[in-house]
Write a structure and sequence with these properties.
Blueprint: E1 2-6, H1 12-20, E2 25-29, H2 33-40, H3 51-61, E3 64-67, E4 75-78, H4 95-104, E5 113-116, H5 124-134, E6 145-148, H6 158-164, E7 167-171, H7 174-184, E8 192-196, H8 197-228, H9 232-239, H10 262-269, H11 275-302, E9 306-310, H12 325-334, E10 340-344, H13 357-361, E11 366-369, H14 381-384, E12 391-394, E13 407-410
Parallel strand pairs: 1-2, 1-4, 2-3, 4-5, 5-6, 7-8, 9-10, 9-11, 11-12, 12-13
Antiparallel strand pairs: 6-7
Amino acid sequence: MKIVVIGLGYIGLPTAIMFANKGHRVIGVDVNESVIKKLNNADSGVEEPFLQKELEKAVKQGNFIATTEIEPADAFIITVPTPSKGDLWKSCDLTYVIQAVTSILPYLRVNNTVVIESTVAPKTTESEILPLIESVGLQVGENVHLLHCPERVLPGRIIHELVHNDRIIGGVTPSCTEAGIKLYQTFAKGRLIPTDAATAELTKLMENTFRDVNIALANELVKVGETLAIDALKVIELANHHPRVNIHQPGPGVGGHCLAIDPNFIVATAPFVTQLIKEARSINESMPMYILSKVEQIMTQIGGRKITIFGLAYKGNSDDTRESPAMTIYQALQKQVKYEVVAFDPHVSLDFVEKDIKTALTNSDLLLVLTDHSAFQKIASKHTANMRNKLIFDTKGIVKHFDTEVSKIHLGNMHTLKEVSIMRR
């Protein structure tokens, strides 16, 4: 089978490679020519376990080619971004999806399958995509198949989960669903669960909304704990011993292209019956400012000047900074001329990121941990030795081992901030 995958980002590229390594001829299409060049040279450019190896295999076998040009194929899979609009409800911006679908129209033939993997608002596939497909004289469900098949993978485990996770196959008609199952069963080992397109769209959004609401509950608990002088992290730990309780972990905010965006797509389609979802979003969006207020309190109390930020990615052991609250906090601190702000992240390669951990911490007054990279579990004494004030503010609960001379504040003991003393070397 010949498959065209449009959009070679965090999801599109692994998806294309999975199909290619099962013997399909895959044409990967992207507008970024530098990305195309890298991929054809078997350079993924993405920090994701096993992806590089799988790409090398696909390119070597000749089953994957990246290009800027679309070709006729048996199946077309759309995996382009769907950002939020700048409107009141931050609704789904379909610009890239519409462009991608429009670009394949001249190449559509009878019995083709068109899959929307991009995350979209409920009923988008039927109301927005179906009319485009049928504008070229094809009949969805009769001689062409259209479906929504959302991904549900975790960065750092994308290759494994693409293959092994259960997958929702949402066809516009039952025959479209059958075509989708036939397509994905060539590499997927998890259950392929049939449903309709609109249900698949809303299911994907609710999976991420559930997590967003749960995190908001944890973040609100942090503020309650500070008010009542109770360790919120200990409360979560103990509550989760209950067999039917699973409170998520709090943090400096919610990032990534899913949790921070998807709930808004539900709100935008039903704004007057989504009070809980809206409130959860508001709580999570407030966390960067909450952390900034605590940093200000700490720095004022200790007379601090230099802040060292550990982690800019939104997720541990990832290089992905999309919608990252760590970036929001870094940028806000940078604007305050009274502070010297240095960022260190072993996974993120940006020009301003300090590559040497010792340099990043020298004369620092506060080590602010904003990402749960496993590399931050242990902060060696040789690195904190040259700090001016030996103080860690761990907003992710990742730091487990550090020098006894170093004090640590976390989201459970914020009420002890007044006890922080000056610890200059």
